[in-house]
């Protein structure tokens, strides 16, 4: 219970700041609305209350997002195209496929880089360069190019999710495979262990903590990749498509709601990996 | 590792020092490290012979190259000049033949393996089958008084117990030669005394040849048949002191005049070898 207090305090502070910001940012918009309606007899309380309940505010108030979330997540059939469960599932599918491909690619590259030192110099610049290109610029091109080969639907978006997620995994796993203490490596040498034995019995188990940390970052990056990819083809749906639609029509409540679902998706994935990581580490080190 | 599997060590001094039975032969060895601040001569013109069954300690101040010498014997460093023969083989052939067990300054146990599986690590790598591994692990645990701790993880053991486990690991595949690099350096005096006695008993039982690097004069005198006193910059051998206490010596011999006189000779050697750099 003790640990709940600081968490609740922070949540409360965030809510207060959010309400204050919403009132301040929407006030001028609401004043214009009053002017248009030729209403002048409004009190400050009216102004604040109305700024927090606008249809298209600059910044929606928390309760507006919550009620929209309730409406689109719980009160709408998951098969409806308005349901955020429907769109969330699309994004989740792309994320998971992309993440699995990205993780396999990331770990594979790390294994290659660690086993062949000379490759690090020739490959790392390309890997880093691949991440310096803004994904928002690259995503439409990937979709167009894959479209040329009749690859459409989930695949191009999963590819972009994979593209964003492999990099942190490669970097993390290279670090993890190199994490054993020099004495532990010398020990393998005194046994005349082969490279494969050293890898399987030392480098791989030693990389476990790095593995789960890399997976967390990679999973979060895959969500971002999937959402950015959806912006390029909004007719296919997904949370990114909802974001795009919202910004077309000035539906800020819709944008924020989709944003929250995206964040929740990300947090759930990272949380799940964290749980798996803790369980594995406990099994590896603490249970005989 | 067990008494039965090892031929009993030759008892008389003459056969032990016979050149035919030399486990280690080093001649004209020098080793230079190229560092950013220029070359460093870690070892210069080392000549040494170690007969089978001997316990040889290397003592000297930091930077005298004693660890480097041990690592060169183990093929963990490559000499610049000179020849090392281990069982009449070059160090890399000897390493490939798994001729030696190495005990490092730190236990270097793998934290994700239990003590038993740590001891089994070299056996897995060398392809021993499961029953043989289990037999040898049990024997190894027994040899270092860790029976009952096989299922513990390294973090659950004290520093002394961890180092004992690492000794059992080095002995598990029954190498003729044991290379030990300040294995008890990080332990307190009381634990060290106890482990010294245990090591002596282990040496007596197994008849291994031991090369032992240490900082401690009493430790070196108590354990060894020969003490190699080294001096730094460049690392070289200053003196080799013979030390013929009975094999079943007890800690009490450290109070005898004979022990004191050998210890004094070592101390003198260390001071002389060191004197020029004040």
Could you characterize what this model shows?
Chain A is an all-alpha fold and about 290 residues long. Chain A folds into two domains: about 5-60; about 85-285, MetI-like (MetI-like fold, Orthogonal Bundle), CATH 1.10.3720. In chain A, about 80% of the residues lie in helices and about 0% in strands. Chain A contains twelve helices and no strands. In chain A, helix 1 (about 5-35) crosses helix 2 (about 45-50). The longest helix of chain A is centred in the last third of the chain and has 34 residues, at about 250-285. The radius of gyration of chain A is 24 Å and the shape is elongated. With about 280 residues, chain B is an alpha/beta fold. Chain B has a domain at about 105-175. In chain B, the strands form two sheets. Chain B has a six-stranded mixed beta sheet with strand order 5-6-7-3-8-9, with helices on both faces. Chain B has a three-stranded antiparallel beta sheet with strand order 2-1-4, with helices on one face. Chain B is globular, with a radius of gyration of 18 Å. Chain B starts with 12 loop residues before the first helix and ends with a helix. Mean pLDDT of chain B is about 85; it is low at about 1-20. Chains A and B meet through helix 8 and helix 9 of A and strand 5 and helix 4 of B.
Tally the helices of chain A: what do you get?
12
- The average pLDDT of chain B is 84
- Summed over residues and divided by their number, the pLDDT of chain A gives a mean of 88
The helix tally of chain B amounts to 9
C-alpha Rg of chain B (nearest Å): 18 Å
Tell me the major beta sheet of chain A. Answer: none
Class per helix and strand makeup of chain A: mainly alpha
For the terminal residues of chain A, how far apart are their CA atoms?
Answer: 32 Å
Low-pLDDT windows of residues of chain B: 1-19
* Structural class assignment of chain B: alpha/beta
The level-1 CATH class of the largest domain in chain A: Mainly Alpha
Number of domains of chain A: 2
Strand order of the largest sheet of chain B: 5-6-7-3-8-9
Biggest pleated sheet of chain B: 6 strands, mixed
């Amino acid at each position: 219970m003790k640990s709940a207090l600081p968490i609740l305090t922070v949540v409360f502070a965030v809510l207060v700041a959010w309400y204050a910001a919403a009132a301040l940012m929407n006030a001028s918009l609401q004043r214009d609305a009053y002017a248009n309606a030729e209403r002048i007899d409004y009190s400050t309380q009216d102004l604040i209350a109305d700024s927090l309940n606008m249809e298209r505010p600059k910044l929606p108030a928390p309760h507006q997002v919550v009620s929209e979330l309730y409406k689109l997540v719980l009160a709408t059939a998951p098969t409806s195209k308005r349901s955020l469960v429907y769109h969330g599932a699309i994004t989740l599918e792309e994320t998971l496929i992309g993440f699995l491909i990205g993780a396999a690619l990331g770990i594979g590259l790390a294994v290659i880089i660690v086993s062949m030192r000379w490759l690090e110099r020739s490959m790392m610049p390309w890997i880093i360069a691949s991440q310096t290109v803004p994904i928002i610029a690259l995503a439409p091109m990937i979709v167009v190019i894959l479209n040329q080969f009749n690859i459409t639907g989930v695949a191009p978006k999963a590819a972009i999710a994979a593209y964003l997620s492999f990099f942190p995994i490669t970097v993390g796993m290279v670090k993890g495979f190199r994490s054993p203490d020099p004495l532990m490596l010398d020990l393998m040498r005194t046994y005349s262990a082969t490279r494969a034995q050293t890898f399987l019995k030392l480098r791989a188990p030693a990389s476990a903590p790095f593995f789960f940390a890399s997976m967390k970052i990679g999973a979060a990056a895959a969500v971002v990749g999937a959402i950015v990819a959806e912006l390029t083809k909004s007719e296919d749906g997904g949370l990114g498509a909802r974001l795009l639609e919202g910004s077309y029509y000035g539906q800020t409540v819709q944008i924020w709601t989709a944003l929250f679902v995206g964040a929740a998706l990300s947090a759930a994935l990272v949380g799940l990996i964290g749980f798996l990581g803790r369980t594995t580490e406990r099994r590896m080190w603490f249970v005989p | 590792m067990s008494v039965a599997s090892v031929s009993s060590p030759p008892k008389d001094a003459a056969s032990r020092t016979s050149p035919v039975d030399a486990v280690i032969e080093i001649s004209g060895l020098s080793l230079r490290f190229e560092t950013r601040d220029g070359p460093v001569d870690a070892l210069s013109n080392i000549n040494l012979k170690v007969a089978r069954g001997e316990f040889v300690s290397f003592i000297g101040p930091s930077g005298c190259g004693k660890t480097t010498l041990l690592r060169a014997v183990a093929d963990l460093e490559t000499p610049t000049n000179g020849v090392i023969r281990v069982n009449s083989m070059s160090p890399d052939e000897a390493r490939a033949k798994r001729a030696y067990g190495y005990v490092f300054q730190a236990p270097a146990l793998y934290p994700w393996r239990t003590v038993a599986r740590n001891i089994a690590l070299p056996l897995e790598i060398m392809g021993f089958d499961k029953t043989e591994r289990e037999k040898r692990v049990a024997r190894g645990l027994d040899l270092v008084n860790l029976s009952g701790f096989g299922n513990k993880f390294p973090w659950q053991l004290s520093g002394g117990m961890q180092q004992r486990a690492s000794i059992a690991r080095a002995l598990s595949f029954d190498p003729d030669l044991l290379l030990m690099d300040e294995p008890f350096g990080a332990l307190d005096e009381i634990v060290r005394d106890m482990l010294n006695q245990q090591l002596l008993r282990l040496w007596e039982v197994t008849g291994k040849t031991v090369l032992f690097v240490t900082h401690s004069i009493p430790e070196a005198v108590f354990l060894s048949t020969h003490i190699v006193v080294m001096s730094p910059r460049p690392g070289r051998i200053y003196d080799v002191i013979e030390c013929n206490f009975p094999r079943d010596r007890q800690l009490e011999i450290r109070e005898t005049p004979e022990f004191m006189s050998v210890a004094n000779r070592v101390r003198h050697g260390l001071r002389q070898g060191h004197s020029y750099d004040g």
